[in-house]
Specification:
heterodimer, A: mainly alpha, MetI-like fold, 2 domains, 71% helix, B: alpha+beta, Rossmann fold, OB fold (Dihydrolipoamide Acetyltransferase, E2P), 6-stranded mixed β-sheet, 8 helices, 22 strands
Chain lengths: 571, 385
């Protein structure tokens, strides 16, 4: 008998069963695992809060008594709600448009996802090159129109809140699109056909059947997008500086840049976002529970009743041009010009900026640092995520520990990266473990940020595989390790590859947390770009951004090859 | 080969609506016996099977294979599935798509650390058993559903396990294949005499395969017995309904005679009916006879008037749907010659329907069977619980 029993302990109260090793061992292992993740993810946040609350919460009173703080909070909320509104309308419309595509044009479905993989900092800079009040190319072009002829600047000022909202909204559209598209795909096509043959018009089907079925996807997607919008950092940082438009995240960054660094104030400033993020997360777990129960799979896949139309394709292409292509064109134009002005002189186009960039050598080091830190982080996150997903998959076991793990694993997704950046900076510049200045602090923050993606993607991979392959192995005599090694690992290979590639792309693009935890001599691609931007070397900035896009593009290509073209749906 | 004893097994599921899937279940399975767990979905048969496999842990009770206790809730014993020396065939086949048929069948042997040369022999043998020798180097994705299930069967048997478990293995196959693979399973069992537990909701599968059947209801065994016993002498009305006695007459004493929801039923019941004022009579469609009104009836007939609701041609027989006092009954009559009376029945027509007490089983209000003198066979010895 393989049963390992602890020596039968004579318990005075004979009614109590002796606790057995077979009961204890997995729970102890799980507690160690949760402890490890907790140390990684929670401890920096807790230490930060402890600091903010020290000396009678001095940091809180300082942060929230500063004049203008309520305006900052209001602006943060405005930015979040405004961009969410734009994203909801555009994202849903685009998802609908994508579902009307004829099979020949199905590849256009990828267009709305591109803003996720184009580095945020690159596209934000691209926008500023196009719509900066005076030298912005598109502004200069618009000023040729008769009714704007008299203008010296504008008509668009990208450095104002409405435009920051629009830029952010265009980026968030991708996320809503992803969620709603997945929602569409989970709708059984026969449900819609049933409504149609029962006499509903296409519009009736949409409003009476499709939209109500989409409600969970919309609510969930809005929640995620709202959290992302509240944590926006890059666009307000780059575009808001000119007119001193700040939000909570940028204020946090500025607080850490003071001498001495005011970690406690930064922590206090981040608290509203932290509390909101965790509240949403817990509410979501309580209210929605498992999203699986909203799935209406089975039967035929989703098809809209509308005939495949050119209109959908046009909508997708227009969005693709506006959200992805335009900013990249802006980058290309500036990168090729000797300097940035509103005027284009194709005869003066030069590759000088690229020469300068690679001559400087900073970018080479930064690319190396980015790649090494990302690869190590991915290599560690995949097994962590696998372990996490395996535990989360067991619904009937560990009724107490499993929800704890679930929440910890999801936290980095609902808390802005800037907060983790501040937390890791503070935690690893002092004991017990000092990692500041090494690449390990980057690796640790990257692992933290990626754990939700790793666990989630692998969990959905496991759900798709089902339990029977594992069960068949167990009843055939395969032990736990043999089953994971010879059955699960080969079957999950595509999921591993897809998750790794996706995380790699996200990490190569990472800017907010990297900017915070790096030391002055340490750079990743995004921070090099920010350095150049601070020095006003715009063609080099643009060239750097294009290099970043190229590295990401290579990552995307690898991801698509490894995980199939629908890899981004697994988010 | 060992006997399997399941004692006092209970399994509850939590969740929003807590349910008791298995309710203090006791079953003894003899060595070499083919036991079928039969019941509708949700009756706990699959949960029982999964508890025996070790894929699910019961809350109470014990399971022993021979002398070896593999599960005992009281003592905390729970041998993991891979140490139970079992084989299992899944509804979804669960063949690993990244392995060839040979690797799939060989897996239980590899897991048991068998020497390569011996294993290779056993794999060939096991593939031979199910006629899959030619498929050994293919991948599961290249096989048809029937072939996949044969391979799964071979994988379940290859290691000569103490016990083979079947979880609705035929449900994913189409009707013709289902009969074919069923026959193969039966032949294999006749030949190899492995101990088996087989879960299904299909009564014809159960009758054909089982040495004994356990009819399950709400986590308990309603009746356990040989297929003939279950079929001919259902112990309870639930079992009768589940094994094809779909016609139900609800008889009540009225003015010295009997009636079904007010519709008078003529005739003798043929047993001592004095203790009963109301009970149910169950009969199979084949035993519900129809004749023209006014036709002389056999002396022991229980007859009543019915209205034809619909009639369907079934080849050798006619399926006639009847309405009697608002209830539905189903009669299956030999179709007879072309133009026969049965074939020409139309909806709305009045007919006389009758059953004979010898073809009818009676149940009291609690659903327990009432013994009758007509039961020429042995009284149901295995009527249980």
């Amino acid at each position: 008998m393989s049963e390992i029993s602890a020596p039968a302990v004579e318990v005075a109260t004979a009614r109590r069963k002796p606790i057995r090793l077979s009961y204890l061992a997995p729970r102890l292992g799980l507690i160690v695992f949760i402890g490890l993740l907790g140390y990684l993810i929670l401890l920096p946040l807790i230490r930060l809060q402890a600091l903010a609350f020290s000396h009678g919460a001095r940091a809180y009173s300082e942060a929230f008594s500063e004049p203008g703080i309520w305006q900052v909070i209001l602006r943060t909320v405005e930015l979040a709600l405004g961009s969410l509104a734009i994203a909801l309308v555009l994202g849903t419309a685009l998802a609908w448009a994508a579902s009307t595509l004829s099979p020949r044009l199905k590849f256009l479905k990828i267009l709305p996802i591109l803003p996720i993989v184009v580095p945020a900092i690159a596209s934000v800079l691209g926008w500023s090159f196009l719509f900066s009040p005076h030298p912005g190319y598109l502004n200069a072009l618009l000023r040729h129109l008769p009714w704007w002829h008299h203008l010296y600047e504008g008509p668009v000022d990208i450095y104002t809140l409405p435009w920051i909202v629009i830029v952010t909204g265009l980026a968030l559209t991708s996320f809503i699109y992803l969620f709603v598209s997945a929602g569409f795909e989970n709708i059984n096509g026969e449900l819609l056909e049933a409504a149609q043959v029962s006499g509903s018009s296409p519009a009736g089907v949409f409003f009476r059947v499709t939209l109500p079925l989409l409600r969970p996807a919309l609510i969930y997607g809005s929640g995620v997008a709202l959290l992302l919008a509240l944590g926006q950092f890059t666009a307000p940082l780059i575009l808001g500086t000119n007119n001193n438009i700040t939000v909570l995240t940028t204020q946090m960054y500025y607080a850490t840049q003071q001498t001495p660094a005011q970690y406690d104030v930064a922590a206090a400033l981040g608290s509203p976002l932290l509390i909101f993020g965790v509240t949403i997360l817990v509410l979501n777990k309580i209210l929605l529970g498992d999203l699986g129960r909203f799935v209406t799979h089975g039967g035929k896949s989703f098809r809209t009743s509308a005939k495949s139309s050119k209109l959908g394709a046009i909508a997708l292409v227009v969005y693709g041009i506006a959200a992805t292509l335009l900013p990249i064109i802006g980058l290309v134009l500036v990168a090729l010009s000797p300097f940035w002005s509103g005027q284009l002189h194709p005869s003066q186009f030069t590759l000088n900026a690229f020469h300068q960039l690679f001559h400087d050598g900073q970018i080479i080091t930064a690319i190396k640092t980015s790649l090494i830190a990302s690869v190590i982080a991915v290599a560690i996150t995949i097994p962590l995520g696998y372990l996490g997903a395996t535990i989360l998959r067991r619904r009937d076991e560990f009724p107490l520990l499993r929800p704890v793990l679930d929440i910890i694993v999801a936290m980095p997704l609902s808390i802005p990266a800037v907060i983790f950046g501040v937390g890791f900076l503070y935690a690893y510049t002092r004991g017990p473990i000092v990692l500041y200045g090494t690449n390990w602090v980057l690796v640790l923050v990257y692992i933290t940020l990626m754990i939700p993606f790793s666990a989630r993607m692998q969990l959905s991979g496991m759900v798709a595989l089902g339990d029977s392959y594992q069960e068949a192995s167990r009843v055939s005599g395969g032990g736990v390790f043999r089953t994971h090694l010879t059955i699960m690992a080969p079957l999950m290979r595509a999921t591993f590859a897809g998750a790794a590639a996706l995380m790699f792309i996200l990490l190569a693009n990472e800017f907010a947390a990297s900017l915070l935890v790096r030391s002055p001599t340490q750079n990743v691609m995004g921070t090099v770009l920010y350095n150049y931007y601070g020095n006003g070397l715009y063609p080099v900035v643009a060239a750097t951004a294009l290099v970043m896009v190229a590295v990401t593009g290579a990552g995307v290509a690898i991801a698509m090859i490894a995980g199939g073209s629908d890899i981004f749906k697994k988010l | 080969m060992a006997n399997v004893s399941i004692r006092g097994l209970s399994k509850r599921f939590g969740g929003k609506v807590p349910t008791t899937a298995v309710d203090s279940l006791d079953i003894e399975i003899e060595p070499g016996e083919f036991l079928v767990l039969l019941g509708p979905s949700g009756c706990g048969k699959t949960t029982t099977l999964r508890c025996v496999a070790g894929l699910e842990s019961a809350d109470e009770g014990s399971i022993a294979f021979g002398e070896r206790t593999v599960f005992d809730a009281g003592r905390g014993t729970n041998v993991p599935p891979n140490k139970r020396n079992i084989g299992m065939v899944f509804q979804s086949y669960a063949l690993w798509p990244h392995m060839t048929v040979r690797q799939n069948i060989g897996y239980p042997l590899r897991a048991r650390r068998m020497k390569r040369a011996t294993a290779s022999e056993w794999i060939e043998e096991a593939a031979e058993l199910v006629d899959c020798s030619g498929l050994l180097d293919r991948y599961p994705g290249q096989l048809s559903g029937g072939q996949q299930q044969r391979v799964a069967l071979s994988r379940g048997l290859v290691a000569r396990p103490d016990l083979v478990l079947f979880d609705e293995p035929l449900s994913n196959l189409d009707a013709r294949l289902r009969d074919q693979v069923r026959t193969e399973i039966h032949e294999l069992h006749q030949r190899l005499r492995f101990t088996a537990v087989y879960v299904t909701h299909d009564q014809s599968e159960a009758l054909a395969l089982g040495d004994r059947l356990a009819i399950m209801r709400a986590g308990k065994v309603e009746q356990l017995g040989r297929p003939e016993e279950i079929f001919e002498e259902p112990g309870t009305e639930y079992v009768a309904g589940f094994t094809g006695m779909e016609n139900r007459l609800s008889l009540e004493r009225k003015d010295g005679g009997w009636s079904h929801y007010g519709e008078p039923v003529k005739g003798e019941l043929g047993f001592d009916d004095h203790p009963f004022d109301s009970f149910a009579a169950r009969a199979r469609p084949e035993d519900l006879q129809l004749v023209r009104p006014g036709t002389p009836l056999p002396p022991d007939a229980l007859a009543f008037t019915a209205i034809v609701a619909d009639s369907e041609f079934g080849g050798r027989w006619m399926d006639v749907l009847l309405t009697v006092a608002g209830t539905r009954l189903h009669s299956r009559m030999p179709a007879g010659e072309r133009g026969s009376w049965v074939r020409s029945l139309n909806a709305g027509e009045q007919v006389t329907a009758y059953v004979r007490p010898g073809d009818t089983t009676f149940f009291d209000q609690d659903g327990a069977r009432i013994p009758t003198k007509h039961a020429a066979r042995n009284p149901a010895s295995a009527v249980g619980v």
